[in-house]
Amino acid sequence: MTLGLQTIQLISTLVISIVMLPLNALLLMLSTKIFKLSDSSYKTAFKVAVILFGVGLVLSLISIYVPATALYIGIASWVLVSIILAIWLIKSNYELEFGKSILVWLVWFAFNLVVSFVIGMIIAAILVAVGIGIAAGGAI
């Protein structure tokens, strides 16, 4: 039995979401601690991250099962979820002014970029090592 492309995309989306959700909440909590907010708890950060991941997951599922809309859904997900909804959730959950919520989001976004890059490099190194191992084993 082979898995279809949609199933593989669904599984990878769910695995990445499950791995990144607690990490994303931790990064938001660190961002709020930098700004010394009154509520910089992991619980609040996790709530914000869960809502964002939930909406992002729904949009991802739509783009997986309706491939013609993938580009539009991707752009909408980036603008609506990653920026607008995230800033609004930060503003409302932490009771901040609009400008400060944008600053918290920018720091959180920068943390996410760094962590995503590091995780990507680790995965790439593992895949290269596996590829070299397979190539070396196949040459014998």
Tally of helical runs: 4
Portion in helices: over 70%
- Give the structural class: mainly alpha
Give the amount of beta strand, in percent. under 5%
Would you identify the regions where 5 or more consecutive residues have pLDDT less than 50? none
Q: Care to count the β-strands? A: 0
Report the biggest beta sheet as strand number plus sense, adding barrel if it closes.
Answer: none
Distance between the termini: 30 Å
Number of domains: 1
How does the overall form come out from the CA principal axes? globular
Order of helices and strands: HHHH
Radius of gyration: 18 Å
Mean pLDDT figure: 86
Describe this structure in words.
There is one protein chain. This protein is an all-alpha fold. It has one domain. The protein contains 4 helices and no strands. The protein has helices spanning about 5-35, 40-65, 70-95, 100-140. Helix 1 (about 5-35) runs antiparallel to helix 2 and helix 2 packs antiparallel against helix 3 (about 70-95). It is globular. The protein starts with a helix and ends with a helix. The mean pLDDT is about 85.
